[in-house]
Design brief:
508 residues; mainly beta; 9-stranded mixed β-sheet
Length: 508
């Protein structure tokens, strides 16, 4: 249930319960969501402290909070908070948890009869079958998870009834009244020391698991031509165990290192964040932040637990693009030839890839109706058919792409353009420590389309770093120290042959 929009003072409720000052409601939360299944949560909490030691409970935490990440402070800097003790209780009361608390004890079970009546059966809980919560498994690793799951036999209880053991509950368990310290929602308990009485709004922030985001781009081409329309979506996934009402969300794109609980080392994470603002025409804004890019959603939104939400964050029309055909004929399993001298293996690199790749390329620039840093995500391409319907033509992932960089996406293999690559000559002269290899290849391209096509033929000089092209049928372009490229135009139903010889040398 969403919190109604009220003045800030009306949204605060502080009461005394079981020795704790309980913060029941607070101001609108803010989230920074990362795509490695975690987020940074921020919320304003009203504190009313007396001089000396205070016990405070925040009972609206997520189920996957990282306790060591919690920061509680006065954002104005006027009050120094001394947290003497912090306790995070992540498991609200449940039947399974209570069964584990009553292991070795006898409780009553309600057993329904066929006539609608009920009877009471007493049973001793030998084993509850309780399985540890998600965060304990994540924190202590797979071995801990395996041990606990094995000990609980995958959640199967054992109950002794009338001196006999059974591997199921005899009925609905009836437990004694809850203890004073039982929690119904994940909670943070603090013991806070204050030198003087103080009443102010504190800021709570922490890292939590169970939240992620990703970007998706839907691109539509017309029936003919290469002008594109693009719509970008952000998908937010909340599996944190908590609902965020009227949340201000920021989406920051970039690669951030984070230590994974239960693992040694670092993993790369991409970040997204959102912040709200009341705009006449709500639009996602973007700006540089540190070494990343911050995307701000224009309006607050409510994220329910276990909800997936999509938000449009960019739209562009009339994007100039190119359709490229690339033939990289080398087909080799490099692991098969690991730790071998490739100069002396004649058959290495002679397997042929018949497929010509279809690539879509466009510039991410203002001149090309874009110019906004693009977060990593999936790009889907569609083309409008002559009947007006959209047909799917391929998809792939793009990495974070800065402004004024080129986006190039592989979308599939061409049906009517084929390639063939074969070795036509190999000769080696090995005189230690000097030597040389001559190797020749022939590449055949065939165009079965009813229109001309241009194919980029990529060749890798993989034998050795010292090489020279001594003979070729067409001029090449050197792309890097070990790669050359030929550009070939084929007319409809034309076959084209490219041939070249590479001379490798090593030693003095």
């Amino acid at each position: 249930m969403s919190t109604p929009t009220l003045p800030r003072a009306a949204r605060y409720s502080v009461l005394l319960c079981v020795g704790f000052t309980v913060v029941a409601f607070a101001a609108d939360p803010a989230l920074t969501i990362y795509n490695q299944d975690f987020a940074v949560f921020r919320e304003t909490l009203p504190l009313d402290l007396h001089a000396g030691s205070n016990t405070v409970r925040f009972s609206d935490a997520t189920a996957h909070l990282e306790p060591e990440s919690v920061i509680l402070r006065d954002p104005s800097g006027k009050h120094a908070l001394v947290v003497l003790e912090q306790n995070y209780r992540a498991e609200p009361v449940s039947q399974e948890l209570l069964l584990s608390l009553y292991e070795g004890k006898t409780i009553d079970f309600v057993v329904p009869a066929q006539d609608g009546s009920t009877r009471i059966v007493t049973g001793k809980i030998v084993r509850s079958g309780y399985v540890p919560h998600y965060q304990a498994m994540q924190r202590y690793g797979q071995q801990y998870q395996y041990n606990q799951m094995t000990a609980a036999s995958n959640g199967q209880p054992i109950v002794e009834v009338n001196g006999k053991l059974q591997f199921w509950l005899p009925g609905q368990p009836i437990f004694p009244a809850l203890g004073d310290d039982t929690i119904l929602k994940p909670a943070l308990d603090w013991v806070i020391h204050a030198s003087t009485a103080a009443k102010f709004d504190a800021e709570l922030s922490y890292v939590t698991g169970g939240m992620s985001w990703n970007a998706d781009y839907n691109i539509v081409a017309p029936e003919t031509g290469e002008l594109l329309d693009l719509v970008g979506w952000v998908t937010l996934d909340n599996q944190s165990g908590k609902q965020f009402d009227h949340a201000h969300i920021k989406l920051m794109a970039g690669d951030v290192n984070k230590v994974t609980p239960g693992m040694a080392g670092m993993v790369t994470a991409s970040v997204m964040v959102t912040d709200g603002a009341n705009l006449a025409e709500p639009q996602v804004s973007e700006r540089a932040f540190e070494d990343y890019h911050l995307y701000t959603l224009p309006l607050p939104t409510t994220l329910h637990d276990r909800e997936t939400k999509q938000v449009e964050f960019m739209r562009a029309s009339g994007i100039q693009s190119k359709r490229l055909y690339v033939y990289d004929g080398l087909s080799v399993n490099r692991n098969q030839w690991a730790n071998q001298d490739l100069r002396q293996i004649e058959q290495y690199g002679t397997e042929s890839n018949p497929h010509v790749w279809v690539m879509r390329e466009f510039d991410n620039s203002e001149a090309n109706k874009l110019g906004m840093p693009l977060p990593r995500g999936r790009v889907r391409f569609y083309r409008r058919d002559h009947d007006g319907q959209l047909e799917f033509t391929g998809e792939n992932e793009i990495d974070h792409t800065a402004k004024d960089e080129t986006v190039r996406v592989y979308t599939g293999n061409a049906f009517d353009i084929t390639g063939e690559r074969k070795q036509t000559h190999y000769q080696i002269q090995q005189t230690y420590p000097n030597g040389w290899v001559d190797e020749s290849f022939e590449i055949r391209l065939r165009n079965h389309k009813n229109e001309p096509v241009t194919v980029r033929v990529v060749e890798h000089l993989y034998r050795w770093q010292n090489w020279a092209i001594t003979k070729e049928s067409d001029p090449h372009t050197q792309k890097d120290s070990r790669t050359i490229e030929y550009v070939v135009t084929l007319q409809p139903d034309q076959e084209k042959v490219i041939a070249y010889t590479a001379h490798y040398t090593w030693g003095g």
